[in-house]
Specification:
401 residues; single chain; 5-stranded mixed beta sheet; alpha/beta; 39% helix
Length: 401
C-alpha cells in the first residue's frame, strides 16, 4: 500500500523569484514547494491494526497542505507497507531514501524494524523522528544519535510504574510476565528489573511468544502454575486479548497489568470478553475520545472534526488515530521551527529543543520536552482501570524515569 500526498509542479518563473529556491534545491527532500518525508507501516501482516497510525498521519498532512502547508511548503508523506517484517522495512526504507529522496523518516512502526534501519539512516545522515515504538533503547544517544522516541510513554518506564504500584500493594508480590520475544517485550522485563533489582530472578516467572504463534494458551497455563500474584501482559493486541481470555477461562485472578499499546476496547477487551477484563490496570498518556470526561473537551472536538473530514473511513473508537494525530502534530511543530532551513542539522536541532509543547490530545499536564541529551518526548503517564465497559483513570500523573 502506498499513501502519497501529490503536489503540483511549480512554474520555473516562480522558482526563480523565490529567494531561498537555490538553497532548497541543495537540500535532500526539499524543494521550493515541497518537503518529502517517508515512513513504513504494517498495512498488512500480523499487526495490521497499527496501520491506522499511518492512515491518520497521511490524513493530518493532507489537512495541513489544504491550509497552505508549512512555511509555504506542502508536506509529501510517502507511507509504504512493510507487512511488519524487518527485512521489508529495510527494503522500503532504502526505496524512500534512494528513490524518493526523503528529508527524514517519520513514525515508522516497530522496535525491531527501527533497529534494522537505524545504522543505514545514520550513514545516510537521515533523521529518524518520533519512532513508532516506546522502546527505551532509542533514547541511547550513543547508538541512536539521530532518533527520537515517539510521542508515547516508553515501555520500560511503563513497566517501572507497574512494579512500583504492585510492590506498594504487596511488598512480597510474585510476578508472571507474558512478553513478545523481541525488544518490545524485553523492555518490560528491563523495567521490572529496574525496580526489583537483585530480587528479580526470584520474583519473576516469564514466558514469551512469537508474533507468528497462532495461540499462547500453553504459556498462560504455565504462568498460572507459578502461583504469581501479579500478571504483566507485555503484548500486542491479538496476544493481549488471548492472554486476558485464557487467564479468565482457567480461573486465574491475579492483579493484571496490560501494556498500553493494547488497551483498545473494540479490538482487545471485547474479543477477550468484557467481563474477563474487569479490574485490569494500565496507563494512559492520551485522551480517550470515548471517555465521557472529554465529552465537551475542545481538543477532542477538534480531533473528531479532523477525523470526520480527513480520515472518514476510520473507526473513531481506535486510539491509534489519537496517537497518529499527536505524532503528526509534533512533527509539524518541528518543521515549523525549522523555518526555511530544512537541513538535517537544523531538523535535528529543532527536534532536540522542544520545550513544554502541549498537544490537545495529550492528557492535561503532559508536555513534550526534548534536549540534545534527552530524546524522550513523553515520560509521564496516569494509571487507569478497566470497569468492564471503559477505562477509568485514577491518581496523579506518574513519571517513569
Amino acid at each position: 500500500m502506498r499513501f502519497v500526498t501529490r503536489l503540483g509542479a511549480l512554474s520555473a518563473l516562480a522558482v526563480l523569484t523565490l529567494p531561498w529556491a537555490s538553497t532548497a534545491a541543495e537540500i535532500r527532500g526539499v524543494t521550493a514547494t515541497e518537503i518529502r518525508i517517508g515512513q513504513t507501516m504494517p498495512y498488512s501482516g500480523p499487526v495490521s491494526a497499527f496501520g491506522a497510525l499511518g492512515k491518520g498521519e497521511v490524513g493530518y498532512f493532507r489537512m495541513i497542505n489544504e491550509r497552505g502547508g508549512i512555511n509555504g511548503r506542502k508536506v509529501n508523506l510517502i507511507s509504504l507497507d512493510d507487512s511488519y517484517a524487518p527485512p521489508k522495512t529495510v527494503e522500503q526504507t532504502r526505496r524512500l531514501v534512494e528513490s524518493d529522496e526523503v528529508a527524514l523518516i517519520f513514525s515508522s512502526i516497530g522496535t525491531a524494524h527501527n533497529t534494522a534501519i537505524a545504522k543505514y539512516l545514520q550513514a545516510k545522515n537521515i533523521p529518524q523522528l518520533f519512532i513508532g515504538s516506546g522502546a527505551s533503547k532509542f533514547a541511547d544517544l550513543t547508538q541512536y544519535p539521530q532518533a527520537t522516541l515517539g510521542v508515547q510513554g516508553p515501555f520500560r518506564y511503563e513497566a517501572r510504574l507497574y512494579a512500583r504500584y504492585a510492590l506498594a500493594k504487596n511488598p512480597n508480590a510474585k510476578f508472571a510476565v507474558i512478553s513478545q520475544n523481541d525488544d518490545f517485550g524485553r523492555d518490560y522485563l528491563l523495567g521490572l528489573k529496574d525496580v526489583l533489582g537483585e530480587k528479580y530472578d526470584s520474583l519473576v516467572t516469564g514466558a514469551t511468544y512469537e508474533i507468528s504463534d497462532p495461540t499462547i494458551d500453553s504459556q498462560i497455563v504455565k504462568l498460572k502454575a507459578s502461583g504469581a500474584d501479579l500478571f504483566v501482559i507485555a503484548a500486542t493486541p491479538k496476544f493481549a486479548a488471548q492472554s486476558i481470555r485464557k487467564a479468565y477461562e482457567v480461573g486465574w485472578r491475579p492483579m493484571i497489568f496490560l501494556s498500553n499499546v493494547a488497551v483498545w476496547v473494540s479490538t482487545v477487551m471485547e474479543p477477550a470478553g468484557l467481563e474477563a477484563g474487569i479490574g485490569i490496570l494500565s496507563t494512559a498518556y492520551v485522551k480517550d475520545p470515548d471517555d465521557p470526561a472529554w465529552k465537551d473537551d475542545a481538543g477532542v472536538k477538534g480531533w473528531r472534526e479532523f477525523m470526520t473530514k480527513y480520515v472518514p473511513e476510520a473507526d473513531q473508537h481506535d486510539t491509534n488515530y489519537v496517537n497518529s494525530y499527536n505524532s503528526a502534530m509534533a512533527l509539524e511543530a518541528v518543521l515549523k521551527a525549522c523555518g526555511d532551513d530544512l537541513s538535517t542539522e537544523n531538523i535535528l536541532k529543532q527536534a532536540y529543543s522542544i520545550h513544554d509543547l502541549e498537544l490537545p490530545m495529550l492528557l492535561p499536564g503532559i508536555k513534550i520536552n526534548t534536549s540534545p541529551t534527552d530524546h524522550v518526548p513523553v515520560d509521564q503517564m496516569q494509571f487507569m482501570r478497566f470497569s468492564g465497559k471503559s477505562w477509568e483513570r485514577f491518581g496523579e500523573l506518574q513519571t517513569g524515569n
